[in-house]
Amino acid sequence: MSKRVRIAVTIVGLAFVGFGISRVDLHEVASSIRTIDPLFGVLAVLVMLGAKVGCKVVRSQILLVDACRRIDREPPTWGVTARLLAASHAAGQLAWGPLGFTVRTIALRDDGMPLASVARVHVAERFAEAFGIAAIALVALAMSPHAILSSWFGRIMLVGLAAIPLALAVSSRLRAKLRDSGPALARATAWAFASSVADICVLLLAARGIHVPIDVPTAILAFLAINGACALPVTPAQLGVQESAIVVALATASIATPQALAVALAYRAAHVVPLALVGLPALIATWARRSPTARA
């Protein structure tokens, strides 16, 4: 996507977000947020940082070890992987989504890892994430098929996920890459699935914290909506896009827009707060570790 197209998409996206906000009773949203239970807010932050990001660290380390084994070099340590992932999430969540990949790519390249191997890890991570999300959708269908299939939004999400096996069926190149990754990708997918479960828990805790009752199938639908809507970067940190996806998904459970938006903002805060406290220092440390020549 060219820079001009990206800017145009961002402007249009922000315009839609602004239009949507103008039609919401913000006083009611603020009232819901003011009633937040701090205990559930803290739990949401801990689950996000410890479980969601923690599982992603394990996923990434598995794939980094596999990629480094192929080129006969030592993989990054667990501490380095954790720092780079925290820095990556901070860059993506607090600024612009693709910056997260850029941060990790530059850091791994500066550490001597070939760009081809770094790209291999990124692609494998996307596969693992997609398979993990697809597994979440299958769990939702098994738990409550009516809640998913009765919603037009849920049906759209399932159609989108169906593109994964379809792409594998028609692309021999993709199948070859998956076979080549083998057990490492399978283990990474299991950890990606665990990270997705943790993310759903963060959403449930955020909703519980502001006293908006949502059941697990609705939370899963909102999770699928977030991942579908945020697949392509539209606005900085997907601001407004993520919230709109949650509002639309919660509307299927007859949750009023102000309360749904309050849930979305609480969910956003559960990500921003720990990333500001942990991710930003990791991002600064990652930059500081670069040599003066590399920074230039």
Outline of this structure?
With 296 residues, the protein is mainly α. The protein contains 14 helices and no strands. Helix content is 82%, strand content 0%.
Question: pLDDT average, as an integer?
Answer: 84
User: What multimeric state do the chains show?
Assistant: single chain
Summarize the biggest pleated sheet: none
Count of DSSP-assigned helices? 14
Show unreliable segments.
Answer: none
Our estimate of the beta-strand percent is under 5%
Helix/strand structural class: mainly alpha
Total count of strands: 0
Helix share bin: over 70%
User: Which of globular, elongated, flat, extended, rod-shaped describes the shape?
Assistant: globular
- Terminal CA distance: 26 Å
List the secondary-structure elements in sequence, H or E.
HHHHHHHHHHHHHH
Based on CA atoms alone, the radius of gyration comes out at: 19 Å
Number of domains: 1
Structural account:
There is one protein chain. The chain is an all-alpha fold and 296 residues long. The chain has one domain (29-295). Helix content is 82%, strand content 0%. The chain is built from 14 helices and no strands. The longest helix has 33 residues, at 38-70. The mean pLDDT is 84.
Could you name the key traits of this structure?
14 helices; 296 residues; mainly alpha; 82% helix
Describe the secondary-structure layout.
Elements: H1 3-22, H2 26-34, H3 38-70, H4 78-94, H5 99-110, H6 115-143, H7 145-149, H8 152-170, H9 172-181, H10 183-209, H11 216-229, H12 241-251, H13 257-288, H14 292-295
Helix pairs in contact: 2-13, 3-4, 3-6, 3-10, 3-13, 4-5, 4-13, 5-6, 6-8, 6-10, 6-11, 8-11, 10-11, 10-13, 11-12, 12-13
